[in-house]
Amino acid sequence: MSPLDSCLLDRIRLRWVPLLLLVGLSGCTNGEYYAQLFDGQLDLLRRREPVAAIVADPARDPELRRRLAMAEQARAFASRELGLPDNRSYRLYAQLERPFVVWNLFAAPELSLAPLTHCFPVAGCVAYRGYYAQGAARGAAALLQQDGWDTYVAGIEAYSTLGWFDDPLLSSMLRWDDERLAALIFHELAHQQFYLADDTAFNESYASFVEREGLRQWRAARGLAPTDQRGERQREQFTALILASRARLERLYASPVADGRKRAAKAAEFARLRRDYRQLRDGPWQGDGRYDAWIYAPLNNAKLLPFGLYDQWLPAFAALFRQVWGDWPAFYARVRALGNLSPAARAQALRILAANPAASAAVKNSTAFTSGGER
């Protein structure tokens, strides 16, 4: 089982790209690690079969056929109505013999929230390593722990190869309901539409906006009412708790106090986080304990790393979408233009959009933004 409920895990699932094996590994020294990437991706490719063939086969499991038929409809909608890539991705299916496709390993120092990063061609630098076997991820975590690192291993239901392969629907993805499955298809195809190396918050906020707006339009096209926002509000409130705790820890670690006092204060901060969560759960949430398993499992710095990446720039991309009057091709063009800016200029443009959408004409009319600017 996932350490988080599926509703939150889909918010923090971090994409990992095994195609890196195929584009050069100069300077890499961990041969065993890259060998398991190659073997795992090859096994996944071998398991693929066309969704249409499964849906048409009366001998296959009826529920599987129903789920895949729904996914086919969402996949067609993604390209037809949302302007997302029209290719073979998510028109294939792979049955796995495990609950997750990969396990991601996060690591941070005992008294720091700076992640241990790993840099690859194409994808750039990311704050995790992916393993196809849970035992391999836990073994790598144990070695880091011996060197004093905080570690966290998270099971991941899906990842994107950014269009380098025809990504299949996975049996692990079918753990989600129909709407979350459709939303995931929109999210992953958004990464194929545009991906900016070395800026995870930009990539995930952009794809999360496409996911949310795509799901809203998908429901409207099927004559369904808007979704209940209670679960989304709870996710946002829980994420806000984690980010507030992380900010307090960052101030603590940057302070001049002795390491022993920092360790004691770190333990006290995690106790405070659990206490704040209980107040939220037993108060406004009326006893809904959907995050109990995560919050009452061991806490450390590495476990806090994934939070916030998927939400940081959501208001900015929502404002950008309104600027172009909901025109998807124009929206993607503006996203690419933002990606062409230098990191500092891009962050400034996003801050303007997020802080005051009504005043975002300052960004819209920026010569650097509309022309692509300079990296």
From TrEMBL:
<keyword id="KW-0645">Protease</keyword>
<dbReference type="GO" id="GO:0004177">
    <property type="term" value="F:aminopeptidase activity"/>
</dbReference>
<dbReference type="InterPro" id="IPR014553">
    <property type="entry name" value="Aminopept"/>
</dbReference>
<keyword id="KW-0031">Aminopeptidase</keyword>
<protein>
    <submittedName>
        <fullName>Aminopeptidase</fullName>
    </submittedName>
</protein>
<dbReference type="Pfam" id="PF10023">
    <property type="entry name" value="Aminopep"/>
</dbReference>
<keyword id="KW-0378">Hydrolase</keyword>
